[in-house]
Amino acid sequence: MKFLFLFLISLNLSATEISCFVEKNLSPVLEFTEEVAVGERISIGEIDQFKFYLKSLNYNQFEIEIYDRETPSRQYTEGSGENLKWTLWSREVLLNINCKSL
């Protein structure tokens, strides 16, 4: 019973609350706040042909994955929970993703 209790506590401690927002052409289009456990990959949302995912690599390192269904291609960015950003600037669209741990 003690082992189960300690295991559940350790799972709770390994989760980090992170907030992300997505802008399209400088206008906010998605806002997202959720707890992410280490190793967990969650969907942030999608805009047009782009799907966005967030993965916790460890308690303070995160990865954003951007899947472009039209091309098809994937882009990645990694960083700390303090400052995680990705930008796409093309002739058609300007997309920004900003994430911070809370």
General description of the model:
The strands form two sheets. The chain has a four-stranded antiparallel β-sheet with strand order 2-1-8-7, with no helix packed on it. The longest helix has 12 residues, at 2-13. It has one helix at residues 2-13; strands at residues 16-24, 27-36, 41-47, 50-56, 61-68, 73-80, 84-89, 94-101. It contains one helix and eight strands, in the order H-E-E-E-E-E-E-E-E. The protein has a domain at 34-102. The radius of gyration is 15 Å and the shape is globular. 12% of the residues lie in helices and 62% in strands. It is mainly beta and 102 residues long.
In short:
The chain is mainly beta. The chain is built from one helix and eight strands; from the N terminus they run H-E-E-E-E-E-E-E-E.
Largest sheet: 4 strands, antiparallel
Count the helices. How many?
1
Give the overall shape, derived from the CA principal axes: globular
User: What is the distance, rounded to the nearest whole angstrom, between the alpha carbons of the first and last residues?
Assistant: 32 Å
Mind telling me the C-alpha Rg?
Answer: 15 Å
Secondary structural class: mainly beta
Give the topology string: H per helix, E per strand.
HEEEEEEEE
What would the average pLDDT be, to the nearest integer? 89
